[in-house]
Amino acid sequence: MMALLLSLLLSATPFEPAYFASNSDQLSESEGASLEKNIDWLKKNRDAVVILEGHCDEWGKSSYNMELGDRRAREVKAYLIEKGIDADRIIMVVSYGAERPADPRHLSEAWRRNRRVEFVLR
Predict the structure, then answer these.
(1) Looking at the DSSP assignment, which residues form a beta bridge with residue 54?
(2) Half-sphere exposure of 30 (CA within 13 A, CB side)
(3) Beta-ladder partners of 5
(4) Which tens digits make up the pLDDT trace of 64-112?
(5) Statement: the pTM of the whole predicted model exceeds 0.85
(6) Could you report the per-residue pLDDT of 9-32, keeping only the tens digit for each?
(7) What are 51's strand-pairing partners?
(8) CA–CA–CA angle 5, 36, 24 (5° rounding)
(9) CB-neighbour burial class of residue 56 (10 A; exposed 0-12, middle 13-18, buried 19+)
(10) Which domains, ranges and CATH numbers included, belong to the chain?
(11) DSSP character string of 34-65
């Protein structure tokens, strides 16, 4: 029981993912606004560093999805830097393409959830 609790605490993240439209690497205005919570947390926790993971839905070729995931993560990185987060605190940008879906179902709702950039605290 204690190991489960510790595991849950360590895996908890203060961040919300950034979501993207299909076949897009551009942050919408509403997504930019939703990232403010993540930015505020990073500004309050100045020693924290993150990895940005780009993800895609299952549509498209694997090579295209890997490239798109990378562009999405780099878009979020640029946005964070523009908002005052030091680039050195973003220790890595990585793309997983469609390989790590947040929702494995084959439905439009799942595809929307899978087109994202995740923040991983390190």
Answers:
(1) 95, 117
(2) 3
(3) none
(4) 999 999 999 999 999 999 999 999 999 999 999 999 999 999 999 999 9
(5) yes
(6) 444 678 999 999 999 999 998 888
(7) 92, 120
(8) 100
(9) buried
(10) 17-121 (3.30.1330.60)
(11) HTHHHHHHHHH-TT--EEEEEE--S-S-HHHH
Residue 82: Cβ-neighbour burial (10 angstroms; 0-12, 13-18, 19+): exposed
- How far apart CA 89 and CA 107 sit, in angstroms, is 35
Q: State the DSSP H helix or E strand holding residue 94, giving kind and residue range, or none if neither.
A: strand 90-97
Closest CA to 116 of 73, 63, 62: 73
Q: How far apart are CA 100 and CA 97, in angstroms?
A: 7
What does DSSP say about strands 90-97 and 50-55: parallel, antiparallel, or unpaired?
parallel
- The owner of tokens 């997983």 is 96
Q: How many helices (H) and strands (E) does the chain have?
A: 5, 4
